[in-house]
Design goal:
The chain is an alpha+beta fold and about 525 residues long. The protein has four domains: about 70 residues, no CATH class; about 230 residues, Alpha-Beta Complex (set domain protein methyltransferase, domain 1); about 80 residues, no CATH class; about 90 residues, no CATH class. Helices cover about 45% and strands about 10% of the residues. The chain contains 18 helices and 14 strands. A hairpin with a 2-residue loop joins strand 7 and strand 8. About 40% of the residues are buried. The structure holds S-adenosylmethionine. S-adenosylmethionine binds next to strand 5, helix 8 and strand 9. This is SET domain-containing protein.
């Protein structure tokens, strides 16, 4: 952890103090000393955590679970209500009543940004990230790099939807007379990603609210202790890691209302209040649980992945009705049993998946008298359970072989990207490789040292990446937009590797179930 340069955030902290944002606790019904400046430093402070979200908030002292650690008054928030305080914006929006809450908040944000220093929120806005890796920024190449059909469709769908939403909102942006660059698709995507990755739930606005300083909290997923190092988390599955019933999102989709659980808007105080979700020692990063997300959902909405995410899962399509017992007549499964068909982070089938497979695998002669067992999570017969795990194992093996690259290739690609972290360096590596130059001793050799049969596949993807970035410079000049594409491609590879890890765990789980009698 490194404390942020106090000067860099001086304006923000002064502005925050002037808006009543404070990390001082309440005593009884009254706030403790009202300080005009600074707004932070009693409970939390801004710091950088390179391995866990970058800029975030650190405990400024030892904090206890449940302690109130930050309060942000309504007048500092940015949402549909604050948009309505702007008469010109309200008049313009009234002409386009079909715009969604998210579109309204995007317009509100772009209008404020376009005001530059004259915006009264400038000290906050200037510290918003300049770029994001959320799915709406994915190019066709980056979407394809996810490899798995559902994931590719997700990315392509988000890109398509954001474009349509921009086209619908563009007339308002133009009517408001915002400068040209605030009316572009790129500008819109930036605003949309800001809202997707930074808003917190409020009951009166489906888009949520931007919450200065409160949006500096990085994410921890439910049920995972903060202190466990990521490497241990990834390899060690402990009893305490099992996902509790209440953590499982059964809605099948992510609602903005699920975003934040460790705080909320408190009407009686008229403030957004944040509470410590565990004890923290001074200096430790203070994290928030925005909700329960798979890694694909984190990538889509927030543009990052967790190395250890017990809420991650892989969807499994059920076999056709005839696949186990051709011709057997069986009752159609109940609708709610057809939801939540997945293998979990540990590689185990979900309750619904296992029940469905058991109902399909059992011989028709046993079904009538024993189908209640499958609905209660029990096997119908040892033989039909064997058929279930044989089917699931073979399904998972096919899922792996249907991916364009293997687990090993993905790992090697990540190693190549890590040692060549810019587009220019990857181009140089390809030149060295293709022209058979002797690499210099400092040249990293993941590609050259990779098993020979894997090299063409690695090379092919590296070349496709370079070809997909048409504006890539051939010089060694660092290229900002291209290097962002590299980071997004890296995330896509990391995601598909995580997917393959779960599928591999499922194969091992099935083998164990088939081995035990
Ligand atoms: C609400 S903001 C948190 C503050 C943010 N780091 C900043 O600098 O403003 C959410 C974003 O922070 C990053 N983030 C949050 N939690 C993270 C984590 N556990 N690991 C990696 N990135 C994280 C992601 O980029 C995410 O979109």
């Amino acid at each position: 952890m490194a404390d942020e340069d106090a000067d860099e955030y001086k304006d923000l902290l002064n502005w925050a103090a002037s808006r009543g944002i404070t990390d001082a606790p309440f005593v009884g019904d009254k706030p403790t000393s009202i300080r005009s400046t600074p707004s932070l430093g009693f409970s939390i402070r801004i710091a950088t955590f390179p391995d866990a979200g970058g800029r975030g908030l650190a405990a400024a002292r030892d904090l206890k679970l449940g302690e109130l650690i930050l309060r942000v008054p309504e007048k500092a928030l940015m949402n549909g209500r604050s948009a309505r305080l702007d008469a010109e914006l309200t008049r313009a929006l009234a002409l386009y009543p079909s715009l969604s809450h998210v579109q309204v908040l995007c317009v509100h944000l772009l209008r404020e940004i376009a005001k530059g220093r004259t915006s009264e929120r400038f000290p906050y806005l200037v510290h918003l990230p300049r770029y994001y890796h959320t799915a709406s920024f994915y190019s066709p190449f980056e979407a394809q790099a996810l490899q798995v059909k559902d994931a590719v469709s997700m990315a392509e769908g988000v890109v398509q939807n954001s474009r349509e939403e921009w086209l619908q909102a563009r007339p308002v942006l133009e009517k408001l007379g915002l400068g040209r660059r605030f009316c572009t698709l790129q500008g819109w995507l930036w605003a949309f990603a800001t809202i997707s990755s930074r808003t917190l739930y409020v009951p009166w606005d489906e888009a949520g609210t931007l919450c200065p300083v409160g949006d500096f909290f990085n994410y921890a997923c439910p049920g995972v202790p903060y202190n466990l190092p990521p490497t241990a988390q990834d390899t060690q599955m402990r009893e305490g890691d099992l996902i509790s019933e209440e953590d499982v999102d059964t809605s099948g989709g992510i609602e903005i209302r699920d975003r934040l659980r460790d705080g909320g808007f408190e009407d009686e105080r008229g403030e957004y209040c944040f509470y410590a979700r565990q004890d923290y020692q001074e200096g430790q990063q203070v994290l928030l649980c925005y909700g329960t997300y798979t890694n694909l959902e984190l990538l889509e909405h927030y543009g990052f992945l967790l190395p250890f995410n017990p809420n991650d899962k892989v969807h499994i399509e059920l076999p056709t009705a005839d696949e186990f017992n051709p011709g057997a007549v069986r009752p159609p499964p109940e609708a709610d049993l057809l939801m939540n068909l997945f293998i979990d982070y540990e590689g185990k089938p979900s309750f619904s998946l296992l029940s469905n497979l058991r109902l399909r695998a059992a011989p028709a002669t046993l079904l009538k008298s024993r189908h209640h067992l499958a609905l209660a999570g029990q096997q119908i017969s040892p033989e039909s359970d064997k058929a279930v795990f044989r089917w699931l194992k073979s399904k998972c093996e096919k899922m792996l072989t249907s991916c364009p690259t293997s687990f090993d290739v993905d790992e090697l690609l990540l190693a190549v990207i890590d040692s060549h972290p810019s587009v220019a360096e990857i181009q140089k590596l390809l030149t060295v490789y293709k022209e058979d130059f002797l690499p210099s001793p400092t040249e990293n050799l993941e590609l050259l040292n990779a098993p020979e049969h894997l090299q063409p596949v690695i090379l092919n993807e590296l070349e496709s990446f370079i070809a997909s970035a048409p504006h890539t410079e051939t010089s060694s000049t660092p290229s900002w937009p291209s290097d962002l594409r590299l980071e997004r491609w890296r995330l896509a590879i990391q995601w598909r590797l995580g997917y393959k890890k779960i599928v591999r765990r499922s194969i091992s789980h099935c083998s164990r179930m088939l081995d035990c009698d």
